[in-house]
Write a structure and sequence with these properties.
globular, three-stranded antiparallel β-sheet, single chain, 380 residues
Length: 380
Amino acid sequence: MREEARNVENKSIESQKGRMDYSLLIVIIFLVCFGLIMIYSTSSYEAQMKFNDASFYLKKQIFATAIGIVAMLAISRIDYHFWKRFAVVAYFATIVCILLVKSPIGIEANGASRWIGVGPLSFQPAELAKLAVILFLAVYISKKRDRINEPKYYMTVAGLVLLVAGLIVIVTSNLSSAIIVLGIAFIMLFIASKNYKKYIFSVVIVAVVGGAVLFLVGGYRLQRIQVWLNPEAYAQDGGFQTLQALYAIGSGGLFGKGLGQSVQKLGFVPEAQNDMIFSIICEELGLFGGIAIIILFAFMIWRFVSIATKAPDLYGSLIVVGVMAHISLQVILNVAVVTNTIPNTGITLPFISYGGTSVLFLMAEMGLALSVSKGSNKLR
């Protein structure tokens, strides 16, 4: 059995000599470049007012993006099986990094403590958590593939993921990242499971319990739900950002006011380069531009599905499924927040919103997906 497993592994590694998925690579590069253009467009006014440098945010994002592209290309050239040995280390490193947020190297910004850093370097542990959970679950599920439906192993996975998600909420107060981590885990387990009813039931239970806790604890998260239900009643407070984003979308019309011509980015939509950048895209490029971006993300998801279904082994397939879950969840939730379809949870738009840590880890995930795609193409 061991010899047979070794032979399967060797064949899988050999299959990595195929070509990467260039259609996926092209759409990644396009989204990243488009993101840089929109970051400059949305942030230039604020950057000029705060730092007397209209390209302040753009420069920082270009630096992070350049490192991210190098990392993506480097990771894409490495056999994805290489990262198996680091899955457990990444999981525990994530926990340590989250706890360090409350240490002297923790950084507070905009009233939230979500970063750690030394000197000019800083990053958000919640972004590391998403990548670490993908790697860890891909290894764990692929090893326990025939027994993952057993309560012992299912509860083990649930407990380990809930620990990370719980720490993200408790230590960093970052509910949106915790939701994404849980969503990634659920989708990966759902794909690998033969008992779909169990996992759907689990989601219902978690949602009910989470809703009950939210109702009992109350606080600003309950207020966000109230703002979501009636943003006009909180127009000068919690609903201000949402209403301004909706004004931006509405004023853009079908084809927009033109690139760089947004009015709402001039101090009306707070930090427009972050969570609400999609509203400025719709204002400047119209409904046409917004739908075009969504179509590009849909194309990316389709490429992930294709790569995952043709992956040489379950481990590679699960990596791509995890990356796909991350991107799709974040896009759906961001657009839903901007359009006030769900309460505001502070979720960025992948590749496009401002954020160095986000783009770095996203590009690392893309490198993993491209690495798996080499094996997928080899098998065609």
